[in-house]
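Appendix B, example 12.
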Amino acid sequence: MKSLHEKLILYGASSLSDSELIGIILDDRALAERLISAHPISELLQYDISRLRMQEGIGLARAAKIAAATEIGRRASKSNAQKVTHILSSNDAEAVFRPLFEGLNHEECWVIFLTSSARVVDRMKISQGGVQATVVDNRLIFKRALELLATQIIIAHNHPSGSNEPSQADITLTNRIKAAAALFDINLIDHIIITATGSYSFRSHNLL
């Protein structure tokens, strides 16, 4: 393990592979390599302590270390996302939304409210559902939009299943919110589906 610590100190944490980073946390490089070969790091870091303990060689103490390291990263991401003041692209929107969905095993739907100059004025969770679906109440969105005098909105929800392709329900929801927004002269800029390994932007696919 000494060589890994030296590599980190000399070249920085970004120079380490996924298995090397986990190896430092676990103090066992061989175990980390077995874990990463079986589970991509994006998947592994979604596991809770009980799921981590099911992996061979991972006891309570090691599972707690991984969970703690994951939570540190998650909180840092959320803090950085809160600092975003303007959203000028789908990538900007994803950077703001992604930390909100990390570690979730159920669907949630969030909305960002913006001014005409794309300045973020608020963000709000508008629904929470099960593993495969969530129900969105348009009234919650537009009540808050009118209170804020927002002229643009972006919505996003996660797919815990891992598929970033929109379902027919997702398409119907998008069209329903777009039509309702038009009644209040509010522009639905994008609807983004977030998964652990990717995303889907309705705007980028010319569906908005």
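The chain has a mean pLDDT of 85. Residues 2-78 form one domain.
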